[in-house]
Amino acid sequence: MIKLNIETKNKEQEILKAYLEENASETLADKINNGVRIQKDNKTLINKKTLDTFMKYAYEEARKLAEKGANCACIEDKTVFVWAMHYFEEDTIEGILYNEDGSEYKKAPTTPPKQIEPQKPKKENNQQSFFDMIDLSTNTQENEDKTEEKEEIVEEVKQELPDWYLKYVDTQESYPDSLVFIKLGDFYEAFSETANIISKEMDLLLTKRDFGSIKVDLAGFPYHVKEEYITKVKDKYNCIVIENNNVEFIQKEEQKQEKNETISVDIHNQTFDKFLLKTISALLDGKVKLQ
Prior knowledge:
Blueprint: H1 11-23, H2 26-34, E1 36-40, E2 43-48, H3 51-66, H4 77-89, E3 96-98, H5 137-160, H6 163-174, E4 179-184, E5 187-191, H7 192-201, E6 207-210, E7 215-222, H8 226-233, E8 239-243, E9 246-250, E10 262-266, H9 274-284
Parallel strand pairs: 4-8
Antiparallel strand pairs: 1-2, 2-3, 4-5, 5-7, 6-7, 8-9, 9-10
């Protein structure tokens, strides 16, 4: 069994450590034992997490639940275990930051911004200027320029996104009525609208994934409870699971046909063919049948 070198200070932390040692993969265990290198403030730092920092994280998550109208929050053990897996798996969550020489990282103090005196309001001038009276064609050209500018921004944002997320988005766009999951490390994760749906249907934590300039909704569950969680939604939704270079299509219960519960497609080094994806979607929905 995997051994973790994290310190425990009470019985609750011992239970959490035992659960992590039983369920963590070797990749996750390496993150916990050795930390993860991250870039922050133009420095390479080592992000290490402890059970103490997790307890603070869990407290904040419980507080968020209580803010929904309850005076207190009673959290089931399995929910806390899912939080723990997510906390140690997710690289964007910070624990304690260290320099590469092993010393703890302390952010340099920043100087307070200078006070800016408020400007006196200018007197309104109701007389139209020459530029106000220019033909509307100028505005048309301006709108076209703005459209091109937006397209450039979209392309710049895409360059920030990892290939696996672009694959996820492409799949979700091809199957807007299906729930799409992707295996990342020790978790199956879902984003945007699927994340919002499964957070309610599966009673999962809804958080955010930071992609630099954008943030998207995120929810997920550990890989070893995949069947348990998929079962909670497959009576209502078709499910699509992306894992490595394969896509698994899981048909919702009411549309199942004999010997056609799932379809797997190898997508290694290939882009998705829209016609193929729509054809498979039609098969899952029972709109067409194979002869």
